[in-house]
Amino acid sequence: MTLKASFNSLSDSLCFASAITPLLLTVLITSGCQETETSAPPHGSQSTVYDSAPQTHGTSIGVSTPSPSKTIARVNGYPIELSEVDQKIRFELHDLNWQAYQLRQAALNKLVQKQADTGSQTQAQSKQQAIENLLTPPIPPVTELPKSSVSAKGQIHAPLSVAVFCSFQSPHCKRMQPVYQALAQQLGDQIRFEHFDYPLSFHRNARPAANAARCANSYGKFWEYSDALYAHQDDLTPERFLSIATQLHINTPEFKACLENLEYREYVEQDVTFGESLGLSNVPITFINGLYIKGPALLSTLNFYSQYALSQVADQALSKDQKRDKQQQIEKSQLPLRLVAINLASDAEHSTAVIELIDDESQALFRNNQPIQFSDYFSEPPILVTIEAQRVLIKHQGVLSFLSLTAPSSDTASNAQNTTQKATAVTSTGTFNEDQQTNQDSLELYPERRFNEGNRELPVTTLTPLSREWLDEQLMNQSQLEEHFQPASHKVEGQSLLKLSDVQQQEFYQTLGLQEGDVVLRVNDAWVYDGQNTLWETLDQEKDVTIQLIRHGLPVRYDYSVQ
Predict the structure, then answer these.
(1) CA pair distance 538, 556, nearest whole angstrom
(2) Which DSSP string corresponds to 481-492?
(3) Three-state secondary structure along 260-322?
(4) How far apart are CA 413 and CA 110, in angstroms?
(5) Where is this region: Disordered (predicted)?
(6) N or C terminus of the chain: which is more exposed, having fewer CB within 10 Å?
(7) What is the CA radius of gyration of the chain?
(8) Per-residue pLDDT tens for 426-477?
(9) For position 335, which CATH number holds?
(10) Do residues 466 and 563 lie in contact, with contact meaning Cβ atoms separated by under 8 Å?
(11) 488 and 547 belong to one structural domain
């Protein structure tokens, strides 16, 4: 997603587009009342579909630029500069700038709504009308980070480094895991994740959990072990640490000694000390190439700052000739062409662009230095000169111009790429307290956690590894394990659902994370009820297993990977 496309998705209140259907406005700020995703690019792909041209101008509030050199105090003749003060509170200043941006964006949305409501264009006119958001979000300060002391996830030479300060006992950090996973799917080989431990003072079990994950890191299993810790966040005990190790085939005497001796305690405290030196007070904190992002964030927020960081990397990589070309007054092309998507490869020869002929909405794939021709439409076809991160340069009749990434028409969007990413809204990442989060706040920050009413399915959150050898041993006692399923009072179409009982001391159910009173609804795609329990068959035959259940009246999902 381009910087402009990501930026436009940050307008979190422009839901009026659906309410003013008669105007049929072509809203360049594709947004919604909540985060909405159609599909994510496959792993390793950089192809995305964009909703508007890259932003190169506009009103930016609170962009973190160096403070001017100005003496604001003297102590015994020693001057104290404004830049020195601002450096110490750079994160707090950015948080204020973000809140100011949110207030202005909300006010702007109301004004745009009012203006749209007073419009009197005909249907044909309104189709050509566009709303362009020129209010850009603040760019955070950049912080230089050391290399993490645990193994990174992703390509070592990836242009994007996402450093996450988290606590394994933080519900906010747990909820961010699928967001990070979605970002990784979209950016593929362009992204690398690094972990920093930042257990908060009231997270009693977070430090032992961090040590356990680092013990697993010595076996090359840090990220798998971390996923399992988040999956069992309410049970961060020594028994659970060993249970996870068993499933990952690393429950060795050395691993047990590592747990008991807290062998990596010093490394955990080094992360904490560094986080405190930065002034961090809550988790999660995300740094994208050093760009500071506070608190829980939606995918569109991370996308915006990722694309900004990529654009900075691309600018630094430009040759002298390319920089000179960029400084020239190159205007937007007036040809009836629309740039729909790009696939930017490390080797320029393999970069591609999907371009649409607006007149008939036909699309084709082009490479650098290739003529852009649709049948015989152009008597002298333009040449695709360069594919950049946010646009392409084309030359037609000796004139250099550019095409910006824009949204294809609704009828042809799905044809451009089967990985269309719909731009979405972002909620504020302002102040929050780790230990004071209401259920309503959770729903507002993470609407994707609600049941999808269409298929009654919860999204993936965390993944628990299961050992095939351990499973086979447990399933030999299937008849005894089945006795813990009892008919529940709930009925669906006359069939009694099944509830778990007397499972507190059962290794099988405890390892899966299941609890007393859980009402199991589905195993993978099959409903579970009295007379049909596919749990055993699925665990025996499948590698990927999902259990959906009701616990204390709330839906819960567990995902397992059998190894």
Answers:
(1) 19
(2) HHTTEEEEEEEE
(3) HHCCCHHHHHHHHHHHHHHCCCCCCEEEECCEEEECCCCHHHHHHHHHHHHHHHHHHHCCHHH
(4) 29
(5) 35-68, 410-441
(6) C
(7) 27
(8) 333 333 444 443 333 333 333 333 333 334 456 777 789 999 999 999 999 9
(9) 2.30.30.830
(10) yes
(11) yes
The 3-state secondary structure of 79-107 reads: EEEHHHHHHHCHHHHHHHHHHHHHHHHHH
Any long-range contacts for 437-442 (C-beta under 8 Å, 24+ apart)? Answer: 437/171, 437/172, 442/175
Q: Are residues 463 and 557 in the same domain?
A: yes
Triad 458, 462, 465: Cα angle to 5°: 120
Instruction: Summarize pLDDT for 518-563 with one digit per residue, the tens.
Output: 999 899 988 898 888 999 999 998 999 999 998 988 888 999 999 8
Domain count, the chain: 2
Q: With CA atoms as reference, report the closest residue to 277 among 441, 123, 475, 144.
A: 144
Q: Would you say residue 382 lies in a domain?
A: yes
DSSP 3-state assignment of 460? coil
CB 17 within 8 A of CB 27: yes
Distance (Å) of CA 92 to CA 104, 162, 292, 430? 19, 21, 11, 10
pLDDT at 69: 73
Residue 107 and residue 100: Cα distance in Å, rounded?
Answer: 11
Contact present, 290 and 239 (Cβ < 8 Å): no
H/E stretch holding 562 reads strand 554-562
- With H, G, I as helix, E, B as strand and everything else as coil, classify residue 166: strand
Cβ-based neighbour number of residue 240 at 10 Å: 21
Terminus-to-terminus CA distance in the chain, angstroms?
34
Give the integer Cα–Cα distance in Å for 379 and 275. 62
Give me the amino acid identity at 384: L
- Tens of pLDDT, residue by residue over 205-248, are 999 999 999 999 999 999 999 999 999 999 999 999 999 999 99
Burial of 551 (0-12, 13-18, 19+ CB in 10 A): middle
Identify whether 188 is part of a domain. Answer: no
Q: How many CB atoms lie within 10 A of CB 202?
A: 10
Residue ranges of the alpha helices (H) in 118-261? 123-128, 171-187, 206-217, 222-231, 238-247, 253-261
How many C-beta neighbours within 10 Å does residue 77 have? 5
Please state, in angstroms and as integers, the Cα–Cα distance from residue 347 to each residue in 324, 368, 387, 388, following that order.
21, 11, 11, 12
Tell whether 468 is covered by a domain. Answer: yes
Residue 145 token pair: 């980070």
Domain that includes residue 507, residue range: 458-562
Answer for the pair 341, 354: CB distance below 8 angstroms, yes or no: yes
